[in-house]
Specification:
By secondary structure, the chain is α/β, with parallel strands linked by helices. The chain is built from 15 helices and 22 strands. A hairpin with a 3-residue loop joins strand 12 (339-340) and strand 13 (344-345). The protein is globular. It binds alpha-D-glucopyranose (GLC) and calcium ion (CA). Calcium ion binds at residues 26-28, 30, 32, 34.
């Protein structure tokens, strides 16, 4: 493989940016961000180095789960604009080298969806679009996704005089994907959005999509067949399509979603490394992350992990033991109101570390260098905080902070009436923390992020390479090496709040040649490579990347 190949499997070296349209930029003064606003910010995103924009749901929806409750798969909610505005966005983005993907929420619909309305009234065809039972299934209270807010995964519907299954909220009935008619409809939805110009999808709740829950009608086929089917179909319609799945599953299960031959999902979020990283952060010890990385199964060549620091949901810690989770809670979410669903944190990362710039750089340096492709959540590039005054997961979906002016440069509407509240005061408020300020400051986080992204893109070894974790003789320091096509990148990260000595022996195939430092904060003397050894001292929370290429 060579450099040319990197544009083929484009997701292996992409920089993905997840955006909540409602919170980005409001161009018509109604207080809600819109598609026009996103189009206006495409140059900003291109300048930052983003190559793929992921739109959170923009479909017509009663918004009882922030749009993850779709009432119409073929439209755009009025408040965001029109389908025409979306096409303009996609076209403008493409012109700047940015692909657009969107959430595909097909595990369930909203109860408002006409399919469900017809199903509950006993329609002979639509009834079977959902999963029904005559009696309440015995384990109805098990496996709720929103503990504390959701009591059961089965609810009784009076109109239907039957129980329907919903893995998420009662207003999100699960589609019956065993029904070929449902599969056809989902194909049509996928085909439609590819025709509109999308490059792929972030597929919501994939393990639940294929779980077999119909108590009266257990399926015999391998549920993964359905994912192969979706991938086949999407490929027939668009060769360079990318499917990124949300599958928060443990090792042993998660890799199945890539498919044995890479014929299912192209990308999977690495919840495993993400959660281990949080434990490593609070302990000042790289070991949990090193162990998690070593435990990752090999993946097919077309496949890729998606790495992130924080996403649009609660920071889930469900993969940690109870004691480990408590450790992370104590450090990063000391107050009850900062926690959610008994397993997660409803804050953004910068507030968890009190805006400590060193720790923010450490986290994002990892997101950009760990094996995989980085995914950012809007605002992370400026260290956007959160608004705990907002309910649930809305706390992290606050308006983007563009400038120190009323409305934060996000809107001209009266700030008192906004659906998503602005954060005005304090170190994370828009008066102090905004894009405009950071543009003017060469040392700002925004400018750091831009350099990080540039470096990451210039070193595709990180996304493509074979990689391994190396010993450092210091548990506080993680070292990993990526090797690809005659190029190598070595990265070291110090998790401790004190300076840490390290000594890394480079594997035989990686020593010699001319290594050069390619990225780091410049906060003191860097460890140096001599012969087959990298040694020296990393300042507290510091990191360095080194690169070497045989070719010019
Ligand atoms: C996924 C989404 C989450 C949503 C849920 C139900 O977990 O990330 O935001 O609430 O699915 O669609
Ligand atoms: Ca608007």
């Amino acid at each position: 493989m060579s450099l040319e190949a990197t544009s083929d499997l484009w997701w292996k070296n992409a920089v993905i940016y997840c955006v909540d349209t409602a919170s980005y930029l409001d161009t018509n003064g109604d207080g809600v961000g819109d598609l026009d606003g996103l189009t206006q910010r495409i140059d900003y995103l291109a300048g930052l180095g983003i190559t793929c924009l992921w739109l959170m749901p923009i479909f017509p929806s009663p918004e009882r789960d922030y749009g993850y409750d779709v009432a119409d798969y073929y439209g755009v909610a009025d408040k965001y604009g029109t389908l025409g505005d979306l096409v303009e966005l996609v076209r403008t983005a493409r012109e700047r080298g940015i692909r657009v993907i969107a959430d595909l929420v097909i595990n369930h619909t909203s109860i408002d969806h006409p399919w469900f309305q017809m199903a509950r009234s006993g329609h002979p065809i639509f009834r079977d679009f959902y999963v029904w039972a005559d009696r309440k299934p015995p384990n109805a209270a098990e496996g709720v996704i929103f503990p504390g807010k959701q009591e059961s995964i089965w609810s009784y519907d009076r109109a239907a005089r039957a129980w329907y299954m919903h893995r998420f909220y009662p207003h999100q009935p699960d589609l019956n994907i065993n029904n070929p008619l449902v599969r056809n409809e989902i194909h049509k939805v996928i085909g439609f959005w590819l025709e509109v110009g999308l490059s792929g999808f972030r597929i919501d709740a994939v393990p639940f999509l294929i779980e077999q829950v119909d108590p009266d009608n257990p399926a015999t086929a391998d549920p993964h067949d359905y994912l192969r089917d979706i991938a086949d179909f999407a490929h027939r319609r668009r060769g360079d399509v990318m499917l990124l799945a949300e599958a928060n599953e443990p090792i042993g299960k998660i890799e199945k979603f890539f498919g044995e031959h890479g014929d299912e999902m192209h990308m999977l979020f690495s919840f495993i490394t993400n959660q281990a990283m949080y434990l490593a952060f609070v302990r000042g010890d790289a070991t949990p992350l090193a162990d998690a990385l070593r435990s990752l199964p090999p993946i097919p060549p077309e496949s890729q992990w998606a790495n992130f620091v924080k996403n649009h949901d609660e920071q889930s810690l469900d993969k940690l033991s109870d004691a480990e989770r408590e450790e992370v809670f104590a450090a990063f979410a000391p107050k009850k109101g900062m926690r959610l669903f008994e397993r997660g944190i409803r804050r953004r990362f910068p507030t968890m570390v009190d805006g400590d710039r060193r720790r923010m750089e450490l986290a994002y340096s990892l997101a950009f260098s760990l094996p995989g492709t980085p995914v950012l959540f809007y605002g992370e590039e400026i260290g956007l905080g959160d608004n705990l005054a907002m309910a649930d997961r809305e706390a992290v979906r606050l308006p983007m902070q563009w400038a120190d002016q009323p409305g934060a440069g996000f809107t001209t509407a009266d700030a008192r009436n906004l659906p998503r509240k602005l954060l005005r005061d304090g170190p994370f408020g828009y008066r102090q923390l905004n894009v405009e300020e950071q543009r003017h400051d060469p040392g700002s986080f925004l400018n750091w992020m831009e350099r990080a992204i540039r470096t990451r893109k210039e070193w595709p070894e990180l996304g493509w390479g074979e990689w391994r974790v190396l010993g450092t003789r210091n548990p506080a320091v993680l070292a990993h090496l990526a090797t690809w096509d005659g190029g190598r990148v070595l990265a070291v990260h110090n998790f401790a709040d004190v300076a840490s000595r390290l000594s890394v022996r480079l594997p035989d195939d990686a020593n010699g040649g001319r290594w050069r430092p390619i990225f780091g904060p410049g906060d003191g003397d860097a460890p140096t490579i001599e012969g087959d050894r990298l040694s020296g001292e990393l300042p507290p929370y510091s990191y360095r990347w080194y690169g070497r290429r045989d070719r010019v």
